[in-house]
Structure formats: C-alpha cells, structure tokens
C-alpha cells in the first residue's frame, strides 16, 4: 500500500471523560467491534478509585498493564484505529493533557444522569483550545437520566460546543427502547441483555411509517417523531468540514455497558474522523504525507521490571514512515540514534515492528536519552511545539533523607521529571529544590518510586505557593523587569529548562504583581 493510503486510513484518537462516565467500558466495546479482543473484561481500567495510598500501590501494580493499554490499536473496515488511553484521575490530568497533543480527534463520554462534570469541562477546554475535532457519546441510556434536550443544552453551555445529534434515544432508563440513527436513518432496538450481540438494525426510510408504531409502540413512536422534528428545527445540519475544524460536534446516545449505540458511533467515527493532521513545529508546518519521517515524544513510561531499568518513550509519528534500524536524529541532543526493537501496539499486546506510519505510535526503549517534547527526524532540524508543562497547583520542598544516597536521589528526580511526573524548580535565593505537581497523589508516587526504583529516600516540607507562572521578559521595559527581579527575588525560581518562574503565594499577590509590572507577561504554561 502506498504511503499516502497508509496515512489516510489511520485514525488516532483519545477517549476523555470524568471518572466513572464509562471511558473504559466504551473503549472495551470499541475493541470488541474491532475484533481486537474476544470478551468483555479484557481491558483493565487503570483508574484509581477513591482513597489515596492503597490506590497508589495499585497504580504500581498496574503500571505494567497500563503500558500495554496506553495505545490500543485495531483494524475496522480497512481503517487502522489507534486509541490513546488517558488516565481519568484528576491528579494525573497533566498526563492526559500531554496525551491530547498526540491525538487527531477525541470522543467525549458524558454520563446521562450526571451530565457535564468537572473533569470533562477541563479536558474539553484543552481540546477546544487546540481545535481538536470532538464527538460526544452520551452514555448509560439504560438508566434514568436527564432529558436529552436539557443535556444537549448543558453540553453547549458548559462545554462551549455547538452540537448536532446524529442519533437520538427512544425513551430512557426503564423505558429505553432503542436508538434512532439520524446519520443512517435507521432504528436499533434495545433488548437489555445485548451485551455482546445486538439486534439487527431495522431500516426505516420514513419516520411516518406505521412500522415504527408497531416496533416501539404508538406513544414512543409519536414522541420520537416530535423529537426528531424538534432536532431538525433546532440544530444545524451536520457539516463534516465544520466538525473537522472543531466548529461543530456530533452527538451519539447509547449504553456502553450494554454495547448499545456503540456500533453507530464507531461506523460514523471511521467515516468522518480525521486522518493524521498537519502539525506546527517551531520551524514550519509539517504535513503527515511528507515522505520523510518526523515524530515527537509525548509520554515516557518507566518499566516495572526492576531487572531492566529501561523506559519506554512513546513517539507519535507526525509525518512519513518510521523504520526499524534506520538512523534518526535526536534533535535536542543533536545525536543520531537507531532503534532495533521499536514496539507497536495492538489491542493489549505490544510487538516489534519494522515499519509504522504517520498517525501511529511507536514505543522506543530508552535508557535516559529522551524527555517529553523531544523530536526525532531524518536529519532536518524540527522542534515540535505543543507539549507544554502546565502550572502546578501543589508545591513542596524536597529534602534528601539519606545523605549516602544523594547521587541516586538526583538521578531519580531528574528522570522522573523527564517523564513528566512532576516539575522541579530551583529557588533563586538559596538553591533549594521545590517539586510542583498537578495533584497531591504525585508526591506519594515520587517518594515510592525514588525508593523502589532508585534506592533513594526523600521527605517533603510544605511551601506556601498559590501558583507558578512562567515569566516572559520579551517586550517588557528593562527598568521594570530589573525591579521585578530585585523585589520578588524571594519568589523566583528556575525550571528544568532554566526558564524564570514566579511562585506567587496568593491569587492576590499574583494580581498585584501583574498590575505593578504591566509590561511583563506571566504565563500559566511553559510554552508561549
Ligand atoms: P471510566 O473508565 O470512565 O472511569 O468508567 P468505567 O468504564 O469504568 O465505568 C464506570 C462504571 O459505570 C462501571 O461500573 C461500569 O460498569 C458502569 N457503566 C459503564 N457504561 C454503562 C452503561 O451504559 N450503563 C450502565 N448502567 N452502567 C455503565 P462500576 O460498578 O463502577 O464498575 P464495575 O465493577 O462494574 O466494573
């Protein structure tokens, strides 16, 4: 198959949701349709449940599993589908944000009873900022939930989307009868125990057909006709270009657990979802169809196996094709590297592959050469943008608890930071190290991993910081900048890339500082 065809048949996406909305269940059902797995229960959720410590041991136990489920690939209808898994727990949100830099589109799962939840709002906002095409799946229609129209309103208002329903539920909860597929104009009836097999779709070319009354009953048929009329009146027609430009978001209804409405979603998805999209680098816009390989690292995963202290770096191929044993340029290190055993991912397995194409993810064994955001090319100097660090919300001093192991501690911290577990800041005033994280759980993860993977011990000390923001002196008045650095020295630190960071101790002080030094820009992500 030609390079062009290979690239065009790839769909790389992520499923995002608030925990418990049904992300894992939906992912699993998609894999079932793809024939990638044979039975339900095969995909392990890597979510962390309620408590903290016991769960975090659980993460460790599941680390091996989550490597395997980080990318789930399968073939469906001649299309190569790559699902990138995203952790649901909010303390790992940054990991999810980074994974979103490697997807070409997303499916957003919303629980019909709970509606739009906090984590959904945050994740969708990131997707909106990046103009990522989104499809919404409203899940758990077998349960009582919100009225479909109210929920669509809520999605428009809270998520700032412009929705167009492509399927519509017939009843809900106890009265849930099935789905009217607006996209294909047919009906799919729900039997309630269709976990694996679903009833054959019934073609209804005309909603006014008496066949509909016979199938779902007079009352439900009447309601459906009225609702579809309303849908047609209220919502815009589906326009593929608008969807691809993130200006319009199709909505599907269903029940992932009962495997209902999932096929409609998948069929439409492979039809409309984008193949790999061009990506902006600092140098130029790179088209996926270019024949030279380029890619960037969006995730690094440490291996569980203590005998092999290597890590797996996940590369999203942006353009061309990646080949085993071919020398590629590690742009940041200006070093050629060859990879003899690149992994590709298929459902729950990973295996060594010779060739992968734009859109695919390959896993490269790494002994510490990579960090998140690194670019690989065939020789051209390209630096991909868009894997920023986000402003952390928790801050603690980190202290060495075993003076004999300081070397191990530094190495451990260094590598964990490259993996993106947290961020480290060095205070300008006294050189003390501060760890900033998005969630509090990360501190336990760091402590545990330092001990088990590097044999080092650390303790933490609280530090009162409200927010870290990156200081951008470009365009600032030189006198103003000098004064800022002098007056605020106590609150200044450098990040790992030596960029200046302002650690504001309260929202008020941040605001005052911004007002006092109007020519200096303060950013909430490291990339500006
Ligand atoms: P997540 O990955 O988004 O966190 O959600 P997950 O798929 O784990 O689903 C969360 C819970 O919701 C699970 O129940 C799951 O069985 C249930 N669920 C998912 N889809 C549907 C649906 O269409 N209808 C109904 N009624 N329930 C659904 P749990 O009890 O928390 O977990 P489990 O013990 O059943 O695995």
Task: Produce the secondary structure layout.
Blueprint: H1 3-8, E1 10-17, H2 23-33, H3 53-68, E2 71-76, E3 79-84, H4 93-99, E4 105-111, H5 118-129, E5 134-139, H6 148-159, E6 163-165, E7 167-170, E8 178-181, E9 186-189, E10 202-203, H7 210-216, H8 218-234, H9 240-244, E11 249-253, H10 262-272, E12 279-280, E13 285-286, E14 294-302, E15 311-319, E16 321-323, E17 328-330, E18 335-337, E19 343-346, E20 349-352, E21 355-357, E22 361-366, E23 375-377, E24 394-400, H11 406-419, E25 423-427, E26 433-437, H12 441-454, E27 458-462, E28 467-472, H13 478-487, E29 492-494, E30 500-504, H14 507-516, E31 521-523
Parallel strand pairs: 1-3, 1-4, 4-5, 5-11, 6-11
Antiparallel strand pairs: 2-3, 7-8, 8-9, 9-10, 12-13, 14-15, 14-23, 15-22, 16-21, 17-18, 17-23, 19-20, 24-26, 24-27, 25-26, 25-29, 28-30, 28-31, 29-30
The structure holds guanosine-5',3'-tetraphosphate (G4P).
List keywords for this structure.
Elongation Factor Tu (Ef-tu), domain 3; Peptide chain release factor 3; eight-stranded antiparallel beta sheet; Rossmann fold; 29% helix; alpha+beta; GTP-binding; 14 helices; seven-stranded mixed beta sheet; 3 domains; single chain; Alpha-Beta Plaits; globular
